[in-house]
Amino acid sequence: MKVPPTNRNHFLQMAKIASERGTLTETLKRVYLMNYAKAVKREKAAVAAAAQEIQISNYI
After folding, report:
1. What is the pLDDT of residues 2-60, one digit of tens each?
2. pLDDT at 58
3. What angle is formed at CA 2 by the lines to CA 58 and CA 51, rounded to 5 degrees?
């Protein structure tokens, strides 16, 4: 299952908005943090996959 790319800063902005409204609970903060971490991992995986693809194309 391919997950569409998500801007990791989106989750920081959502947390900031919730904090300003006073609705940022510990649970919600953890959810935003976990989603942020997943987005960072997806970005790193995409960079690694692109680098690997370039490396393979250089050998052929």
Report:
1. 666 678 899 999 999 999 999 999 999 999 999 999 999 988 998 999 899 888 888 76
2. 81
3. 20
Task: At 34, give phi and psi (nearest 5°).
Answer: -65, -40
Q: How far apart are CA 5 and CA 52, in angstroms?
A: 19
Distance (Å, whole) CA 17 – CA 42: 24
CB of 3 closer than 8 Å to CB of 27: no
Give pLDDT, residue 18.
95
From 39, 30, 29, select the one nearest 9 (Cα to Cα).
39
Residues 24 and 11: their CA atoms lie apart, in Å, by 12
